[in-house]
């Protein structure tokens, strides 16, 4: 059939394009995971504060800190 030299150049470009798209989507997934982890940590901190507030162990510094966090 055909040898390597006879292959059309667009085949190689297609593979390069697929690789670029794959790398791009992998990067986006990594960013989403990082954002999700940050949100989870933030949520855990707020929940801990609310529990401490409920049992009366949250100090003034913690209350101000949570207010500043948003």
From TrEMBL:
It comes from the Eukaryota. Residues 1-38 are annotated as: Disordered. This is Uncharacterized protein. It comes from Ilex paraguariensis (yerba mate). The lineage of its organism: Eukaryota, Viridiplantae, Streptophyta, Embryophyta, Tracheophyta.
């Amino acid at each position: 059939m055909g040898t390597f030299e006879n292959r059309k150049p667009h085949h190689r470009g297609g593979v390069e394009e697929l690789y670029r798209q794959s790398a791009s989507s992998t990067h986006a997934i990594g960013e989403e995971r990082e954002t999700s982890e940050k949100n989870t940590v933030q949520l855990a901190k707020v929940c801990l504060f609310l529990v401490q507030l409920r049992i009366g162990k949250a100090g003034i510094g913690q209350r101000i800190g949570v207010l500043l966090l948003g």
